[in-house]
Known about the structure:
The protein has helices at 2-13, 19-27, 69-79, and strands spanning 35-42, 56-63, 84-86, 99-108, 111-119, 126-134.
Amino acid sequence: xxxxxxxxxxxxxxxxxxxxVRSVAEQFRAPPDAAPLEERATPRRLLCLGGSPCxxxxxxxxxxxxxxxxxxxxxxxASGWALQPHGDCQPRPNRFARVALCSATGEVNGYAVxxxxxxxxxxxxxxxxxxxxxxx
Length: 136
């Protein structure tokens, strides 16, 4: 009996691939001067553990300088996405913590997609993030 339970748990946690989220993420066109910072992929499983949705994919890039709202919207257009942008992409005075300067959210090929530009008022450099996860 213990072997059956163990077998079911192992089978439920075996990665089943993440090709859908990866194909959506590969559509995103980061600026040419963006330096890759991080990538975390959580594959599809029968049982998702650890609080991360599965499948999901998170990517981030360092940008040497802030991009304005028009350029931020241009990233969505270049990617072929009709995401809803929020914010003006400008830092708030006296904000020294890294916060979202602007973001875009929406649905792409059945996945929830969020793009953020993070920055603060002390530094011209920013971080661009992409999060792709199941809807809901």
